[in-house]
Task: inverse folding
């Protein structure tokens, strides 16, 4: 009888708990609070937080290679690169590239904002991270969860938890991070600029866009293929109008299912030993830096373009090149409406916003090609 | 008769005026919801509302007429 009790106690996780585990529980509880009570990106933060909690309960072997339940999700979903592309499939089925097609110049804004990534890359190297780690940190500035996860899982998997949480946290904080940068780098007069009406976009253009873009990007930057092909396929589903069941499945059921596995797996990589080290603090700092610099880069690019344009663009939309869709576009609209109530920048900002998604994928592909 | 048209596509969230109301430039007339964001639409000129062409919950496209005034 006593032996059974002794056995029960010693095989329980309780005796193997470390202080680190307890710290991670605290982090998990904070994230659960933010997700449930404050509703910060709950679709991702909740499973991530729960993943953190369960992986820091000892002896469960949930992340044990070849055996753990969550390990299987992680291995087949993330390590084998299935989940991020599927999220992009759903994203493409929801994205409207119309404002970008109507005003192709905004592609340059999406590209310009990515300059922030490169600045962050060098900053990260200066901070002592190796090249692969620096790339994974830099991509946070792309404000794109799946791309961050995709790149980090390939280049620096030990940083996956930190970079992913960083990316999603800052995406939720865009309404706080961006406005000060936007107000600093633009004049009152610039913020009031009303842009020329967007030309209507025909169905033919909407259907050709994903096909042409997919082909161009995959020919020029082949490593972008998994993400870009799925993004454009999803968009083609939507714009063709003939496969509504597939469009719905991609943007709803599939997206939701994949998000569950993604969140849980990413959270489960955050064991006490991988997460509780000073590098992580630098990652959070550099992630914020990346967002700020990317916002600035987009704004500066817009101001630069205005030197050559007859129909001026409102430089605020440059900030939407940071591809947190549609948070950054919403933020641009708000700041724009503060300067001029009757200026409705939302749709104009969506151009660079969606261009930024493509830009971040290309940037990630280039980093992958050179460092992978 | 001057009209207030929708500057963006979205759903009509709230209508803040009634037929017969006098409105001034920059008054909030209608709130649209676009991309999950409440987007107030402001008056382009002063006048009196003669007709409200949408109701709460309607989906509108860019350039749809929201309100007519005289």
Result:
């Amino acid at each position: 009888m006593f032996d059974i009790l002794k056995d029960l106690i010693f095989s329980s996780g309780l005796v193997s708990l470390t202080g680190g585990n307890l710290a991670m529980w605290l982090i998990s509880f904070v994230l659960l609070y933010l997700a449930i009570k404050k509703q910060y990106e709950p679709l991702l933060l909740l499973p991530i937080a729960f993943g953190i909690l369960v992986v820091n309960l000892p002896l469960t072997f949930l992340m044990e290679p070849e055996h753990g339940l969550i390990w299987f999700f992680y291995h087949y979903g993330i390590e084998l690169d299935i989940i991020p592309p599927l999220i992009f499939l759903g994203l493409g089925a929801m994205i409207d590239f119309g404002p970008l097609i109507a005003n192709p110049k905004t592609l340059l804004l999406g590209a310009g904002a990515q300059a922030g990534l490169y600045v962050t890359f060098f900053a990260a190297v200066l901070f002592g991270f190796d090249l692969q780690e620096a790339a994974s940190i830099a991509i946070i500035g792309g404000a794109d969860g799946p791309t961050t996860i995709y790149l980090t899982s390939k280049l620096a998997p030990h940083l996956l938890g930190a970079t992913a949480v960083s990316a999603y946290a800052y995406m939720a904080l865009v309404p706080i991070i961006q406005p000060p940068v936007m107000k600093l780098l633009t004049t009152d007069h610039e913020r009031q600029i009303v842009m020329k009406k967007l030309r209507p976009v025909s169905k033919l253009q909407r259907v050709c866009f994903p096909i042409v873009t997919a082909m161009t990007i995959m020919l020029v930057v082949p490593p972008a293929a998994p993400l870009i092909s799925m993004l454009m396929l999803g968009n083609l589903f939507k714009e063709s109008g003939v496969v509504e069941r597939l469009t719905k499945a991609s943007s709803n059921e599939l997206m939701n299912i994949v998000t569950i596995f993604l969140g849980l797996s990413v959270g489960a990589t955050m064991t006490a030993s991988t997460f509780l080290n000073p590098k992580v603090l630098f990652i959070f700092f550099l992630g914020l830096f990346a967002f700020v610099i990317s916002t600035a880069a987009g704004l500066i690019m817009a101001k630069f373009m205005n030197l050559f344009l007859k129909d001026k663009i409102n430089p605020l939309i440059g900030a939407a090149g940071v591809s947190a869709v549609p948070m950054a576009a919403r933020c641009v609209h708000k700041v724009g409406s503060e300067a001029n109530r009757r200026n409705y920048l939302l749709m104009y900002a969506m151009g660079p916003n969606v261009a930024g998604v493509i830009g971040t994928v290309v940037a990630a592909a280039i980093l992958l090609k050179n460092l992978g | 008769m001057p009209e207030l048209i929708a500057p963006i596509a979205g759903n009509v969230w709230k209508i803040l005026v009634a037929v017969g109301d006098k409105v001034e430039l920059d008054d909030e007339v209608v709130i649209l919801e676009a991309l999950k964001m409440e987007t107030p639409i402001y008056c382009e000129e002063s006048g009196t509302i003669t007709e409200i062409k949408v109701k709460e919950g309607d989906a509108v496209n860019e350039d749809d007429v929201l309100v007519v005034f005289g």
Notes: Residues 91-265+274-371 of chain A form one domain. The longest helix of chain A spans residues 278-306. Chain A has one domain: 91-265+274-371. Chain A has a mean pLDDT of 92.
